[in-house]
């Protein structure tokens, strides 16, 4: 357990904004600082990605900052949970006092799903896979889904429950992209277009503009600021693969290691988690992550989430913002997992608030089940 807390959290504009990436970054950062009762003048650490190879440099320059500490590791959607660990370590070491972690993308306004160029440029190893015509990244997740359904005798309608539950949470979140779209059923998901067997468009995350930011500082300083501190209790990470050519088992992910490390560091178990924010790039991502993190056994996730367990009112509140499937997905969703976790622990979520939430988990997944990072957060006692 660290002596570090998150003291501010905010989104930038979401949906279709027409704004530049840097303008959205500035929105998220200044809103999160205002939430914390701080200003840009207080910031001496910055962690961000998604702008360019020099993301932190560009964002700092745009905001007029000269930070003493930066982090721009590109690890996909899990990067921001990784940044929490790096920031906590830097704050505890006395290297920095106030760190902002941020991300934003305008990929819907830009009419693009690509953040970093072609598959071949991202991954030279893909030369061995490209001849088979995979769609990046969905075909890779689809292979994992196909293997999972076959191995455990499961069916796509049970997988669809992940999307159905996410939509129910989105209906309670006025900022969700699908807030006014109405409820979803498993049959609705199964009626959507097949993209890469067995995943349909209903199994896939949104493509939107958006992003967010969180602000971290020492727990001692946090207790004098505007909002109740949300403590960083534990964290862990694991990087497993670039391509899938050498992956032995598509149904086991690095979340096994990242989750175990986070729980051990926090001195907690999965049973202690009151609300979970788990990256939902695709419905299968959630099923694999829940098992890897220890919430249920291997092959049990699709039965375990049944009966409304992960829907509003269920006994395992999951992706309470509506997630990447129905709330927002700007290419890398990990920052918004943290924003929602903080808001839940501060009791700020209105109709979707989980009563009495004291421990939250945020778990990011990046690439093609390539990088995994888990953060445990808790209320300050």
What is the first-to-last residue Cα distance? 13 Å
CATH architecture type: 3-Layer(aba) Sandwich
Query: How can the largest sheet be summarized?
Result: 9 strands, mixed
Strand order of the largest sheet: 3-2-4-7-1-8-11-10-9
Query: Would you state the CATH class?
Result: Alpha Beta
| Count of domain modules | 1
> What number is the mean pLDDT?
94
CATH superfamily: Thiolase/Chalcone synthase
Number of H/I helices = 14
- Percentage of helical residues? 25-40%
CATH topology: Peroxisomal Thiolase, Chain A, domain 1
Mass-distribution shape: globular
Class inferred from helices and paired strands: alpha/beta
Domain Thiolase C-terminal: 236-378
Protein name: Acetyl-CoA acetyltransferase
GO molecular function: acyltransferase activity, transferring groups other than amino-acyl groups
Pfam families: Thiolase_C_1 (PF22691)
Keywords for this entry:
Peroxisomal Thiolase, Chain A, domain 1, 14 helices, globular, 11 strands, 381 residues, two-stranded antiparallel ribbon, alpha/beta
Put the structure in a nutshell.
By secondary structure, this protein is of the alpha/beta class.
């Amino acid at each position: 357990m660290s002596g570090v807390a998150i003291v501010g959290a905010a989104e930038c504009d979401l949906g279709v904004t027409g704004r530049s990436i840097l303008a959205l970054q500035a929105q998220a950062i200044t809103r999160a600082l205002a939430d914390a009762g701080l200003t840009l003048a207080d910031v001496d650490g910055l962690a961000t990605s998604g702008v360019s190879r020099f993301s932190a440099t560009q964002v700092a320059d745009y905001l007029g900052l000269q930070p003493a500490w930066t982090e721009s590791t590109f690890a996909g959607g899990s990067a921001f949970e990784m940044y929490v660990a790096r920031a906590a370590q830097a704050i505890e070491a006395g290297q920095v006092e106030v760190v902002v972690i941020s991300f934003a993308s305008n990929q819907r306004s830009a009419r693009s799903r690509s953040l970093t160029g072609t598959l071949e440029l991202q991954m030279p190893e893909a030369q061995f896979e490209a001849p088979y015509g995979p769609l990046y990244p969905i075909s890779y997740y689809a292979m994992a889904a196909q293997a999972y359904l076959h191995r455990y005798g499961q069916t796509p309608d049970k997988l669809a429950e992940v999307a159905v539950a996410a939509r129910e949470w989105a209906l309670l979140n006025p900022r969700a992209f699908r807030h006014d779209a109405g409820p979803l059923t498993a049959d609705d998901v199964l009626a959507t277009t097949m993209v890469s067997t067995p995943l349909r468009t209903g199994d896939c995350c949104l493509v939107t503009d958006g992003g967010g930011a969180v602000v971290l500082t020492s727990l001692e300083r946090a207790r004098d600021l505007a909002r109740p501190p949300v403590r960083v209790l534990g964290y862990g990470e694991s990087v497993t693969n670039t391509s899938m050519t050498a992956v032995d088992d598509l149904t086991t992910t690095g979340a096994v290691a990242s989750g175990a490390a986070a729980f051990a560091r926090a001195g907690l178990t999965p049973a202690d988690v009151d609300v979970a924010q788990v990256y939902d790039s695709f419905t299968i991502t959630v099923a694999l992550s829940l098992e890897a993190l220890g919430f249920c056994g291997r092959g049990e996730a699709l039965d375990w989430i049944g009966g409304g367990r992960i829907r509003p009112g269920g006994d395992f509140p999951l992706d309470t913002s509506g997630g990447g499937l129905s709330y927002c997905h700007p290419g890398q969703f990990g920052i918004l997992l943290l924003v929602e976790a903080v808001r839940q622990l501060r009791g700020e979520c209105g109709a979707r608030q989980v009563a009495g939430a004291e421990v939250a988990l945020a778990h990011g997944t990046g690439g093609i089940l390539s990088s995994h990072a888990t953060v445990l957060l808790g209320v300050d006692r």
